[in-house]
Amino acid sequence: MARYDNRRVFKKDLYTRNGNIRAQEVRVIDSDGSMIGIQPLSVAIAMAKEQELDLVEISPNAQPPVCKILDYNKYVFEQSKKNKDAKKKQSKVTMKELRIKSRIAPHDLDVKLRQIEGFLKKKDMVRLVVVFHGRENQHKDIGMQMLQDAAKRLEPLANVDGGLQQQGNRMSMTFVPKA
Question: Which of 112, 124, 128 is nearest to 157 (CA)?
Answer without folding.
Answer: 124
